[in-house]
Design a protein that fits this description.
heterodimer, A: mainly alpha, 13 helices, flat, B: 4-stranded antiparallel sheet, 19 strands, globular
């Protein structure tokens, strides 16, 4: 097991390096000159040349890459062009907001989705099951920004129950968490329902029932554990992408997470910000995936790590 | 009550009144109170003033820092940290500085501060985005603590405008300004949580008297609906960039006042005048006759913009009124025929789609109107990075360009865009180049205005540009806010603002 994790960690380092390198060249291949963007259209050629030099953009690409790697190895991804701060620090100061939103949304969707999915499966094809299916399908199809704006219009502007934007109090968390959780909740509920239905027909369930176990015990002790693998896989992937920031929701609720920072970085060709963001996001993504893989072993003892 | 007692009573009343007046005078202005929350659409970029070119950021800088001079709501230059100035010779400006001013950390403001503040903008290591305003700066001399002599390499007619947006910083810094801004302004820095909020608090020792507000919380809310909802729900006191279509909802909302402020921001259609078909003056004039700017202002901007009747905003130094071209498709067709384009031609119209409101609608209207005179226009929206790159590389036939006069002066949007050295356009005119340098070098305001008039006339007569509209900024202010005055440069000045 330890050996497995060590090997995976090593592979992860290679993956992160690969992603960072790819992005390094990708953003530079994209049209758009960070210096020109930063100075605006009225800048003259001399000023532009000076800034390009100060930013090191006038060097050959491969030299820029070597310098970038050398600095990145010591955790220095460079200063943000617009924010005039170390980009790694910028990312890390905003990361807690993102993790907070991701964890809360995850928790909420799991808490709602499991009972909902199990309930629907146990009453498969009934009116209530169909109703739940319609609701989850709708929740999955509604675009995030629209849900966010509707939540603001109803709960904030009209009813004045909750704040429109910002972070700090639990009230400010409610709307963004709901907006992020809704589609995830719907997806998870559908997965749980399908997993339940697949397992309900299995022999081990019949055996458990034959032993005289109550319905609740059969579900909780036997079925849930068996259907968890696909659910954990999907939740892991979802969580991983949430750590990259729920960009749309962050913008709608002015939530100070990493998503906005990353997207602004790309739009403005703020190379250092893009590099730092991609590094940390890919690192987290790889680690979450590793955690999911390790979790498989606990969920299904048949899975062995070599 | 007999007359004796009543006189005594009146006397004591008068005494009381006099005493209370004296007490008020002793206490000075009422102590700062209340917290104002303001939500701007633009993101807060940095705490170090010259590192930003965003008016959203400048609004914040101006709470913590002062400049040597400032621009009034009427566009006129007023004294600030400099009490007087004179042009010694066209390359030398002498400023007399205000005495007894202290930075928030206790350092005195002197000519050394002026020298340091300007020198550091030119230092490439600072990476100051404001460097463009100081291209012709030579050096600052400091004959004594309260005299600063600014030398320029060439005569600079817009020096005062540049100074009005150049904040004075202390020469000795214990921490970088990006972390701990220290100025002489009416508010002191408290904290900045990136992408969340920035807080400043009243500076009770401010040289113009303490501000009315105890605290200001700046937020940036990019999403229009959220910003507007936050205002209506009373969570913020002041917002900018309200959209024309939101105005109906604002009208019914209690406690909110809408303020419309014509800005110095002008959107214009550039033609690639150095290449066919736009290298023909008649074609350019035909396009000016074929575009109905009024319909853009009235139907697309819903009246929340103004017709341009010069080359600059009305409050900008250098504005000279011109007669806009009449909308006349028949004449446009005739001019095209005269130029040999009886059957029209096909061109590409590029623009930054997300840069300013309604860009796409404006582009489509232009395409439709030019279509009527036989010119086929392909509308090409672009993202900002691609747009800037292709604009600078001159890879375009027609472009929608927006230009502001950030320092309240026409030099920036005219000389820096139109002089042939800038290579912003394929078209150039030796006559225009001469006029542009003439206005830059002219330190006499009246003569300078004359040059601006000639520049603008030339651009109207034969320049490859069609002026489309002058943007109007729409602010929403809650009724508890007092003393808010909007400015054409879109900088929000918060020192005079208070709360009921």
């Amino acid at each position: 097991m330890t050996h497995y994790i060590a090997r995976r960690l090593l592979a992860s380092a290679v993956v992160v390096w690969g992603v960072v390198t790819l992005t390094f060249f990708l953003v530079r291949v994209l049209p758009g000159d960070p210096a020109a963007l930063s100075l605006g259209v009225s800048a003259d050629a001399e000023t532009l040349a000076k800034l390009r030099h100060a930013m090191g953009l006038d060097r050959p690409l491969i030299v820029q890459y070597v310098i970038f790697l050398r600095d990145a190895a010591s955790g220095d991804f460079g200063q943000s062009v617009y924010m005039a701060q170390p980009s790694a620090k910028l990312f890390l100061t905003k990361l807690p907001a993102t993790i907070e939103l991701a964890l809360a949304a995850m928790l909420l969707s799991v808490l709602v989705a499991f009972p909902l999915g199990i309930y629907a499966a146990l009453r498969a094809n009934s009116l209530r099951d169909n109703l739940i299916s319609v609701c989850t399908l709708t929740a999955q199809s509604m675009p995030n920004f629209w849900v966010g704006i509707m939540l603001i219009l109803v709960f904030s502007q009209t009813l004045r129950l909750l704040p429109t934007f910002g972070r700090g109090t639990w009230q400010q968390m409610v709307l963004p968490v709901v907006a992020v959780a809704l589609p995830m909740m719907a997806l998870t509920a559908r997965l749980v329902r399908t997993g339940m239905l697949d397992n309900l027909q299995e022999d081990y369930v019949r055996t458990a029932r034959a032993k005289g176990l109550a319905q609740a015990a059969v579900v909780a002790r036997h079925i849930v554990k068996n259907m968890l693998i696909p659910v954990v896989t999907v939740l892991g992937l979802q969580f991983g992408s949430l750590l990259a920031g729920a960009v749309i929701v962050e913008i709608v609720f002015s939530w100070p997470g990493v998503g906005q920072l990353t997207v602004d970085g790309i739009m403005r060709r703020d190379y250092p910000v893009v590099a730092a963001s991609v590094f940390f996001i890919s690192l987290m993504f790889v680690l979450v995936n590793l955690a999911v893989d390790v979790a498989y072993g606990y969920l299904d003892p048949r899975i062995r790590y070599r | 009550m007999n007359s004796g007692t009543s006189i005594a009573f009146l006397r004591s009343l008068a005494l009381l009144a006099a005493l209370s007046l004296a007490a008020t005078a002793l206490a000075g202005a009422p102590a700062p109170s209340g917290t104002l929350t303001i939500a701007q659409a633009r993101i807060i970029e940095t705490l170090d003033p010259p590192l930003s070119l965003s008016v959203g950021n400048w609004s914040i800088s101006m709470t913590m820092f002062d400049s040597l001079v400032t621009i009034g709501p009427d566009g006129k230059v007023q004294p600030m940290l400099a009490t007087r100035w004179e042009v010694v010779d066209p390359l030398t400006w002498r400023f007399t500085l205000r005495r007894g001013i202290k930075f928030h950390d206790g350092q005195p403001f002197t000519s050394a501060s002026v020298k340091f503040s300007l020198d550091r903008i030119l230092d490439p290591a600072t990476k100051a985005r404001q460097i463009g305003y100081w291209q012709s700066y030579e050096r600052t001399e400091t004959p004594d603590d309260y005299t600063a002599i600014i030398k320029t390499k060439v005569p600079v007619g817009n020096l005062l405008s540049a100074l009005a947006v150049t904040m004075m910083v202390p020469p000795k810094l214990s921490r970088p300004l990006t972390e701990k801004p220290i100025g002489t302004g009416p508010f002191k820095f408290v904290e900045w949580v990136v992408d969340d909020h920035l807080t400043v608090e009243a500076n009770p020792d401010y040289w113009q008297g303490p501000p009315k507000l105890a605290k200001i919380v700046f937020r940036s809310i990019k999403e229009q609906t959220t910003r507007f909802s936050a205002l209506l729900a009373g969570q913020v006191d002041l917002i900018d960039q309200i959209l024309p279509e939101q105005l109906d909802r604002a009208k019914g909302a209690p406690g909110v006042t809408i303020i419309k402020q014509p800005t110095s921001f002008i959107r214009q259609l550039w033609l690639s005048g150095g290449r066919p078909p736009f290298n023909n003056t008649k074609v350019r004039q035909a396009i000016k006759h074929a575009i109905d700017a009024r319909s853009i202002v009235e139907s697309i901007m819903q009246g929340n913009a103004e017709i341009v009747d010069g080359c600059l905003g009305k409050n900008v130094v250098g504005y000279v009124k011109q007669t806009p071209y009449a909308y006349d498709p028949a004449k446009a067709k005739a001019l095209l025929a005269e130029a040999g384009y009886k059957d029209g031609f096909s061109v590409d119209l590029k623009f930054g789609a997300e840069l300013y409101p309604k860009q796409k609608e404006i582009a489509e209207t232009i395409a439709a109107q030019l279509g009527e005179v036989g010119i086929k226009v392909k509308v090409t929206p672009q993202d900002q990075a691609l747009w800037v790159e292709e604009l600078l590389a001159l890879k375009w036939d027609m472009e929608i360009v927006g230009a502001a006069s950030p320092a309240g002066d026409g030099d920036d949007p005219l000389r820096r865009l139109w002089h042939s050295n800038s290579k912003r356009l394929t078209w150039s005119s030796p006559q225009l180049d001469k006029l542009l340098l003439e206005q830059q070098a002219e330190v006499d305001p009246a003569k300078r205005l004359q040059s601006f008039g000639n520049i603008c006339k030339l651009l109207y007569d034969e320049g490859p540009v069609v002026y489309l509209l002058n943007d109007v900024e729409i602010y929403g202010v809650r009724d508890r806010v007092t003393g808010f005055v909007s400015y054409p440069d879109q900088i929000i000045r918060l020192y005079p603002v208070g709360l009921k």
